[in-house]
Amino acid sequence: MRENNVKKIVAAGGNVVNGWLGVPSGVTAEAMAHAGWDSLCIDMQHGLVDYQASVSMLQAISTTNVTPLVRVPWNEPGIIMKSLDAGAYGIICPMINSKEECEAFVGATRYAPQGYRSWGPVRGMIYGGPDYAKEANTTLLSIAMIETAEAVANVDAIMSVKGLDGVYVGPSDMGISMGFGPGFDPTEPKLIENFKKIAEAAKRHKIFAGIHCGSAAYAIKMIELGYQFVTILGETRLMAWAAKNAVTAVKAGKPNPNAP
Fold first, then answer.
1. Of 100, 130, 230, 257, which one's alpha carbon is 20 to 30 angstroms from that of 245?
2. How does the average pLDDT of the chain come out, rounded?
3. Rounded to whole angstroms, what are the CA distances from 187 to 71, 183, 191?
4. Is residue 254 very low, low, confident or very high in pLDDT (cuts 50, 70, 90)?
5. Burial of 197 (0-12, 13-18, 19+ CB in 10 A)
6. Which residues of 42-75 are buried (b: 16+ CB within 10 A; e: fewer)?
């Protein structure tokens, strides 16, 4: 079965730089895939992507060795299994707040006896290879989102679920749950304390911790905190940032080192 690059990097003690896709387009997915990311996550929760668009995007990512991931809309077995069948090499599942919710999530990503995933990897086998049935349970990633105060309180129970490969922090939802409001790259001490607690717990449970970041500087800071999987913005925000810098440079009549 095709190797999972995220697993390889994490196992070697490295850091995964992940990209984020919310535009339902195979063209933008392909362009992002050729930008050097270790993995790309198709966002079906808050992005504009539906299932059919996600399939086309997975195909576009397949033009490279970038590992394709999908964030599903919710902890619902049908879309989790369908996304894996379409060729996703890992699932990020939002709002996991308890051990029981995590068990239900992980079970949907694994074939029996480790889980209850139904057989039918229509495209998954094309992308993964002929030994998909034998290797899928150990190759594909199950990543639970820790994004509420409740989840932080239950973090050790959640991370104790067998088969869980990693956790992913949603800073905005966690900020909301703690009364700070949403936003990228928070600096509130209580939130940073939670981020540190999650990273330390992941290390104890021998899984990796990931987090969504609003800048390269913050991603580096989170790596220093113990995170092995960092996402930097998403393609729409990166495009808007590059466009604004280019326009500003021309209107100012002088080169901008950050502009294309």
1. 230
2. 96
3. 25, 10, 7
4. confident
5. middle
6. bbbbebebeeebbbbbbbbbbebebbbbbbbbeb
DSSP secondary structure string for all residues of 127-148: HH-TTHHHHHHHHSEEEEEE-S
Phi, psi at 147, each rounded to 5°: -145, 25
* 46 is annotated as an active-site residue: yes
pLDDT attached to residue 249:
87
Beta-carbon contacts of 139 under 8 Å, excluding residues fewer than 6 positions away, are 1, 2, 3, 4, 7, 89, 128
Model-wide pTM > 0.85: yes
Amino acid at 106: V
Whether residue 197 contacts residue 175, with contact meaning beta carbons closer than 8 Å, is answered with no
Quick count: other Cβ atoms within 10 Å of Cβ 27? 11
Domain spanning 5-252: CATH superfamily? Phosphoenolpyruvate-binding domains (3.20.20.60)
Residues 172-189: what's their mean pLDDT? 96
